[in-house]
Amino acid sequence: MQTIPAIDLLNGQAVRLHKGSYEEVTVYDKSPLDQAKMFKEAGFDYIHVVDLNGAKEGEFVNLPHIKEIITELRISIQTGGGIRTFEDVEMLLDAGLSKVICSSMAIKNEKDWLRSLEKYPENMILGMDLRNGKIAYSGWLETVEESVDLFLSRMIEHGLQEVLCTDISKDGTLSGPNFELYNSLKRNFPQIRVIASGGVASLDDLRKLNEADIDAVVVGKAYYENRISLKEMAAFNN
Asked: Which of the residues 51, 88, 112, 129 is marked catalytic?
């Protein structure tokens, strides 16, 4: 299993939201570069970065900070937040991002999403946020009627290789991941890489995800709240 440390950027600062609410923001580090250096020094060469300004406003306010991390530390970054069009995807890949995570775009602009997926299959990650078993989008305010299984099956036909799945009810809560959800995804879609996101609270959570053969896990709040150390995270980073 790959362990991926997370940095959520808002106005150039490393923060965390509670269940995606911009009204509940905790600032953890005013310098995202300093935070990324800590991950690099702990042995991580791949991190997860979300541009919260982009997600809310559709403008890549934090891209200069992301490019600085890539240039200064020579590490790979997967990023999401505010990606609306095929041109956005190309711009981010040209800027040096390793992988691009698309959530709302895959629903609201499926034409550009499929174009991106077919041209850059190894660089595209579907950000699949679930609320009560349905795919949510537009800041988690709307849901898709099409079932998860049908949607994923269609995407796989177009070259989908990787899914970052978040149970919204778990995000930022430190209440433990939705193990049943991730086990189900691996069982039903063994051909895609599953990245678990949301709810990780302890070393035991990492053990269980690893034992379930989940491909990767994003760890954010549990690290920032000192529930899991970088050393403990690194032990599962294979």
From this structure: 129
